[in-house]
Structure formats: structure tokens, C-alpha cells
């Protein structure tokens, strides 16, 4: 019973942390979306001077640990004269990381769109850019939704890593409360429950969204 | 001092960093072992375990996939001391990340098992094989082959996630990188880039090996279903 | 009881549909029975109930005096004595032809690898595929796959073999090679039950024909009698239809 009352006391604090978790996740996934899309387009349609760097970027960020990337941004960039706040560093590092993964999903989706689609668009007199924008991407977005949903949920969980640069997200707030009361077990059981509920709600809503946009003719722009 | 000069200075710390990376590799082996065996078991229970065991296996998978790795690490590291038990960070990391990986691997293996046509099981049973025997000799050898692409992805994730054990004080490479940084802050970027390169080497050689394994065990003439697991 | 196989009053229902409504027959050693009848009349279910790949709801089966359907019987031991050849072959995808054939002897009968290999090579030679021992199923034609699967059944030295429409999944030009192997087996005295639409095979190889429709045996008898003067109008009608469809002698 003491555990229960104890938990009751720190719930508001955890809720505050949860808010930051959601904000960081939303920010980094959006950053990753834009950057990932550019990287994918660069890899598929870019000339070699563009496609090769894009490719290197993707391989680097997919092949190295997220924690290392976070420390590069937060502790490393000041070596190069770039000083960012912890929050900005966290969002930037997570965003750069998920961009590489999203780029791969987008690339797969773009390449899954039939080649005839581009030809047909060009035959109508569209420019390459127009064809990509109005014909290829709307189809690719629809294909990419399931993997993109997975990535979003993955980032929600991995955002907990920002506690290591002393941000007070759900994880960081949990750590602080636990350290103060020296009661890690009970606090982190509650933190785990928070994440379970969060992941459950998010995955259910994404599934609902998937069903909505799967309707023919509706397309996937709603995703943005 | 230029960046190249800094990299050169990190060179002095390289032996120490590489030694620390052996801890990551040790942890990696343990995680793959736990994840593979437990993941196979969970997948088998999900497919063949009947209602009760099957449901439990699904709940297990769901919990360990939904809770972030860091939260699991804290639970397994600090949890036992709550009950008066002391646990080392390496063991805590093995359990937390191992169970987590087993949940992801069970998803991969379950998909692979379910992708095998039912006729294979029926034919094995018709020969007089018991169900466990049919699973061992007919189902699993095929399922593991199908699972290699999905498993390669999981291998990469687990390799990189060994650094998360940093959070419970394991003496692995990130911890030593941080020590280097605390001693000479101007080397921070160079040090972390070196760490990143070490991991690129790990993930690349691992994936090359798995690619070879996949080619080696590819069944001649057979079109494998895509890696959509 | 002298018959090798006795089937007594088998019943099987899937949901509301009764697929088998009391089927009984006996099979002597060395006999070849061919079961014919329209699709979906329970022929395959009947075969699968004999070695309990499908559990019958009611009725009993004896093999060589042992009750197959008794809960006390070790069904795996019974199945090891009954060969089964599937419509879609079901060769083990990850094993070569040789490995497919020797898997049962090794893992079910506990035979040593060298001995099982020798046996498997003999059986492959028997179906004319000794040169394909190292090929994987996906590298073989449908006819070759089906012959390997017959070899796989033979390697267990079974008391009888059940054939479930063994040529239905084959391209027409590949049917002959499989029927040739089966004819040879029958002539060598193998006990067989064959569900098939190949009337030519039925007429020339069967010792007895069973005509099944809607879950019951409508008529049974020697091929000469059943084909030339069927007693039951349903039999006559089926034979007329199948002759139109498959072109008589098959």
C-alpha cells in the first residue's frame, strides 16, 4: 500500500515528463520525415554527386548506435563551435537518426511504385519534379504507412535516451524521482506502465489511421 | 589543433576503447544467445502452444517490445536490490536486453513458421513423426532459413543497443569514450566518431557474415518469400 | 480377422456438413482398391481418417489386427506403417530428394545414416530417379516430385500406401510417369488404396473399385463389372460424365 500512495505522489511529475516525451517524439519524427524524404529522393533520382553522400549518410546513421550519435551532437559539436541546448541536441540527434531509417522506407516505397507511372506522367507533359510530386509520392506515401508507423513507435521508445543528457522526459523524470527517494523499482514499474499505455494508444490510433487512408482515392496526405 | 590531429590523439586511447568494445561483443553474444533460444521458444508457443501458453507468449512479446530498453535496463538493474538482491550490471543487461531481443526475435520466427505451408507438417506427421520431431526436423530448418533477413536487422539493432548498458554503468565502449572526453574535452567529437566507426565495422562484418550464411543455406531452385517478416 | 485393413462405419462432420456418413470396407493383402467419385464426396477425408491425419467422429479402423482408432494406440507407430502420397507432393522443401526419402527411416525407424542412405538410393532407383538424388524439390518437375514422394513412402517399408489424387496437380504430360510407377508397384504386390480420376488406371490396375458419393459408398466391385454394367444409376451417370471430361481410357 505504501508503494501505491508513493506512486500517487509522483504521478503529476511523470505526466510532465510524458508530455516532454511526446513533444520530443513529435519533433524528431517530423524532422526525420522531411530529411528522410529528401534523402530518399536524393538516392533514387539524384545524380551521383548527390546520391552518394545521401547513401553514406543513411549507412552511417543506421550502422552506429543512437547513443553515440546523441553524444556527438551534444558533447561533440561544441568542439566545432556549435553549442546547442540539451533539448535541441536531443531532437536533432533523434531526428538525424530516424531520417536515415525513414529514408530507407521511402526509398523502398518509391521504388515499389511501378515505372510506368513516371513514364505516363512524363507523357502527359509533366516535368520530372511534377511527376514525382503528383504521381509518385502520393502512391509511395500510401505504401510506406505501415513501416512508418513502426518507426514512429520505435522513436517513442528510443526517445527515452535523452535522459542521458539530463532531459526530464518520462525516463529522465523517473530517474530523478527514483534517485531522490531511492526507490527505483516502484518508480520504474510505473514508468514502464506509462510507456505500455502510450505505445498501446499510439499503435491503435495508427492502425485506425491506416484503415482510414487505405480507402481508395483518399490517399495519404493526411499523414502530414 | 585540426580535427585530424584530434583523431590522431584519440589513437592513443584506441587500445583502451577497443578493449572496452570487447565487453560490447561479449554482451552481444549473450544477447543473441538468449534472444535466439528464448525467441524460438516464444514463437513455438505462440504457434503451437495452445490457448493458454500461446496467450502468455503473446503478452510476453507485447510487454518486452513495448517498454523501452532503458526502462527495462533500470528495472532489471535496480529491481533485484529492491528485494535485497545485488545484481551486476552485465547480468542485468543480459536479462533486460536479452528478453527484449527475444520478443523481437519471436516475432521474426513466428512469421517464418507461419509462412511454411501446412502440407509440410502434415507430410511429416504422415510419416509417423511426432509433432516435436516434425517441428525439429521439418519446420524449424525451413523457418530459420526464411528468418535470416529479418534476423539480420535484429542483429544490427542488438549490436548497437549494447551501448545502452552504459546507463547501468557497464564498462563498455561508451563509458570509456566518456572517460576520454572527461579527461580531454577537445577530443569529444573525434572520440565518438571513432566509436561510431568501430560499430560500423561490427554491423558491416556481422551483416556480411549473415549474408553469406543466407547464400550458403539458400535452397537451390526455390524462390524465397520476401523479407517482409 | 484376415483382412489387412478393416474400416468400419466411419463418420466425419465438418461443422454442419457431414462428409462421411458411415463408410465400411475391407482390404486384403496385395490388393489395390481404387476409390472414384465426384469431388467433395469425402474420398480424401476417408483416406486421412484411415491414418488419423483427420480424426474421425465415429467408427473404427484396424490395421493388421491393431485398432488404429483406439486412443491407446500410438498413432505415430501406425502411420509409420502406412505410406501416404499427397496430391501436392508435400516434399520437404529444404531437403534433397535423397534426404527426403531417408528422413523417415532415420528419424522414425531409427536407422543409421549409411543404411538409410543405401535404402533411399534403392527406392529412388525403383521410381527411376537415382540420378536426381541430390536435386532439391524446387529443381524437379511435378512428376519427378511425385515419384520422390512415392519413394519416400516406400522407404518406410509400409504395409499399405494411400494415394490421395496423386496425379491431379500434374500437367497432363507428366501424369504417365507417375501412373507407370504406381502400376508397377501394384504388380509387385504392394497393397494400395488410390483415390483418382484416372479411369484408365482404375480399369487396368484395380482389383476392386469403390464408387463414393455424398459420404457413402454407393457401389463397389471388380472394374470389369462396375465399368460395363454398373448396378446403381448414380454410378452410371458419374462414369458417363467422367468419360466426357477426361476422355474415357485416360
Can you put this structure into words, describing what you see?
The complex is a heterotrimer of chains A (224), B (229) and C (250). By secondary structure, chain A is mainly α. Chain A has helices at 2-45, 48-63, 66-76, 86-112, 115-123, 128-158, 170-181, 184-214. By secondary structure, chain B is mainly α. Chain B has a single domain (3-216), classed as MetI-like fold (Orthogonal Bundle). Helix content of chain B is 80%, strand content 0%. Chain B has eight helices and no strands. The longest helix of chain B has 46 residues, at 3-48. The model of chain B has no long low-confidence stretch (mean pLDDT 92). Chain C is α/β, with parallel strands linked by helices and 250 residues long. Chains in contact: A-B, B-C.
Secondary-structure content class of chain A:
mainly alpha
* Nearest-integer average pLDDT of chain A: 89
Molecular shape of chain C: globular
Low-confidence parts of chain C lasting 5 or more residues at pLDDT below 50?
Answer: none
Largest interface (CB within 8 Å) is between: A-B, 40 and 42 residues
Got a strand count of chain C?
A: 10
How are the secondary structure elements laid out?
The complex is a heterotrimer of chains A (224), B (229) and C (250).
Chain A lengths: L1 H44 L2 H16 L2 H11 L9 H27 L2 H9 L4 H31 L11 H12 L2 H31 L10
Helix pairs in contact in A: 1-2, 1-4, 1-7, 1-8, 2-4, 3-4, 4-6, 5-6, 6-8, 7-8
Chain B lengths: L2 H46 L1 H17 L2 H14 L6 H26 L3 H9 L4 H31 L11 H11 L4 H30 L12
Chain C lengths: L4 E10 L2 E11 L4 E5 L6 H8 L7 E6 L2 E2 L7 H5 L2 E4 L11 H11 L5 H14 L15 H13 L5 E5 L7 H16 L4 E4 L3 H7 L2 E6 L2 E6 L1 H6 L4 H14 L4
Parallel strand pairs in C: 3-8, 3-9, 6-7, 7-8
Antiparallel strand pairs in C: 1-2, 1-4, 4-5, 9-10
Q: What would you say about this model in short?
A:
The complex is a heterotrimer of chains A (224), B (229) and C (250). By secondary structure, chain B is mainly α. Helices cover 80% and strands 0% of the residues of chain B.
Features:
heterotrimer; B: 229 residues; MetI-like fold; 8 helices; 80% helix; C: 250 residues; alpha/beta; six-stranded mixed sheet; 9 helices; 38% helix
Amino acid at each position: 500500500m505504501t508503494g501505491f500512495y508513493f506512486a500517487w505522489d509522483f504521478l503529476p511529475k511523470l505526466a510532465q515528463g510524458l508530455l516532454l516525451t511526446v513533444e520530443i517524439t513529435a519533433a524528431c519524427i517530423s524532422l526525420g520525415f522531411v530529411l528522410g524524404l529528401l534523402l530518399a529522393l536524393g538516392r533514387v533520382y539524384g545524380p551521383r554527386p548527390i546520391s552518394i553522400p545521401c547513401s553514406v549518410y543513411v549507412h552511417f546513421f543506421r550502422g552506429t548506435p543512437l547513443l553515440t550519435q546523441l553524444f556527438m551532437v551534444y558533447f561533440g559539436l561544441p568542439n566545432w563551435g556549435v553549442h546547442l541546448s540539451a533539448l535541441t541536441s536531443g531532437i536533432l540527434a533523434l531526428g538525424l537518426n530516424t531520417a536515415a531509417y525513414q529514408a530507407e522506407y521511402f526509398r523502398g516505397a518509391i521504388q515499389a511504385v511501378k515505372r510506368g507511372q513516371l513514364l505516363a506522367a512524363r507523357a502527359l507533359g509533366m516535368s520530372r519534379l511534377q511527376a514525382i510530386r503528383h504521381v509518385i509520392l502520393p502512391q509511395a506515401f500510401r505504401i510506406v504507412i505501415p513501416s512508418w508507423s513502426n518507426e514512429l513507435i520505435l522513436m517513442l521508445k528510443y526517445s527515452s535516451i535523452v535522459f542521458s543528457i539530463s532531459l526530464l522526459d518520462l525516463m529522465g523524470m523517473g530517474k530523478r524521482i527514483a534517485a531522490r527517494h531511492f526507490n527505483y523499482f516502484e518508480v520504474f514499474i510505473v514508468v514502464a506502465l506509462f510507456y505500455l499505455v502510450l505505445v498501446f494508444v499510439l499503435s491503435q490510433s495508427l492502425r485506425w489511421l491506416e484503415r482510414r487512408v487505405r480507402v481508395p482515392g483518399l490517399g495519404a496526405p493526411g499523414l502530414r | 589543433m585540426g580535427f585530424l590531429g584530434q583523431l590522431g590523439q584519440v589513437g592513443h586511447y584506441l587500445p583502451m576503447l577497443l578493449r572496452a568494445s570487447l565487453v560490447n561483443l561479449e554482451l552481444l553474444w549473450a544477447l543473441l544467445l538468449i534472444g535466439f533460444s528464448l525467441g524460438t521458444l516464444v514463437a513455438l508457443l505462440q504457434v503451437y502452444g495452445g490457448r493458454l501458453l500461446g496467450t502468455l507468449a503473446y503478452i510476453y512479446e507485447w510487454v518486452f517490445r513495448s517498454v523501452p530498453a532503458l526502462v527495462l535496463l533500470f528495472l532489471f538493474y535496480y529491481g533485484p536490490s529492491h528485494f535485497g538482491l545485488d545484481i551486476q550490471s552485465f547480468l542485468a543487461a543480459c536479462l533486460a536486453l536479452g528478453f527484449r531481443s527475444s520478443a523481437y526475435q519471436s516475432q521474426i520466427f513466428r512469421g517464418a513458421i507461419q509462412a511454411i505451408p501446412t502440407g509440410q507438417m502434415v507430410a511429416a506427421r504422415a510419416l509417423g513423426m511426432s509433432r516435436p520431431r516434425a517441428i525439429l526436423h521439418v519446420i524449424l530448418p525451413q523457418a530459420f532459413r526464411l528468418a535470416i533477413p529479418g534476423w539480420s536487422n535484429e542483429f544490427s539493432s542488438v549490436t548497437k543497443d549494447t551501448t545502452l548498458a552504459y546507463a547501468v554503468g557497464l564498462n563498455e565502449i561508451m563509458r570509456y569514450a566518456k572517460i576520454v572526453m572527461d579527461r580531454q574535452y577537445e577530443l569529444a567529437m573525434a572520440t565518438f566518431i571513432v566509436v561510431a566507426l568501430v560499430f560500423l565495422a561490427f554491423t558491416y562484418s556481422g551483416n556480411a557474415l549473415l549474408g553469406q550464411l543466407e547464400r550458403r543455406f539458400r535452397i537451390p531452385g526455390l524462390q524465397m518469400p520476401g523479407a517482409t517478416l | 480377422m484376415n483382412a489387412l485393413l478393416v474400416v468400419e462405419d466411419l463418420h466425419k462432420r465438418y461443422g454442419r456438413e457431414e462428409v462421411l456418413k458411415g463408410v465400411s470396407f475391407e482390404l486384403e493383402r496385395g490388393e489395390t482398391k481404387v476409390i472414384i467419385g465426384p469431388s467433395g464426396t469425402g474420398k480424401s477425408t476417408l483416406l486421412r481418417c484411415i491414418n488419423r491425419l483427420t480424426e474421425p467422429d465415429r467408427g473404427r479402423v484396424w490395421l493388421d489386427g491393431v485398432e488404429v482408432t483406439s486412443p491407446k494406440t500410438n498413432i505415430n507407430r501406425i502411420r509409420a506403417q502406412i505410406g501416404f502420397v499427397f496430391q501436392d507432393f508435400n516434399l520437404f522443401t529444404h531437403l534433397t530428394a535423397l534426404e527426403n526419402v531417408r528422413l523417415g527411416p532415420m528419424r522414425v525407424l531409427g536407422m543409421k545414416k549409411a543404411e538409410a542412405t543405401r535404402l533411399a538410393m534403392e527406392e529412388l532407383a525403383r521410381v527411376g530417379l537415382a540420378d536426381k538424388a541430390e536435386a532439391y524439390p524446387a529443381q524437379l518437375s511435378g512428376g519427378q516430385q511425385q515419384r520422390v514422394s512415392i519413394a519416400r513412402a516406400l522407404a518406410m517399408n509400409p504395409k499399405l500406401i494411400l494415394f490421395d489424387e496423386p496425379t491431379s496437380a500434374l500437367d497432363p504430360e507428366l501424369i504417365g510417369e507417375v501412373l507407370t510407377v504406381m502400376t508397377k508397384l501394384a504388380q509387385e504386390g504392394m497393397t494400395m488404396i488410390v483415390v483418382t480420376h484416372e479411369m484408365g488406371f482404375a480399369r487396368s490396375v484395380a482389383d476392386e473399385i469403390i464408387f463414393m458419393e455424398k459420404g457413402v459408398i454407393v457401389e463397389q466391385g471388380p472394374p470389369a463389372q462396375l465399368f460395363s454394367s454398373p448396378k446403381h444409376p448414380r454410378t452410371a451417370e458419374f462414369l458417363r460424365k467422367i468419360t466426357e471430361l477426361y476422355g474415357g481410357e485416360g
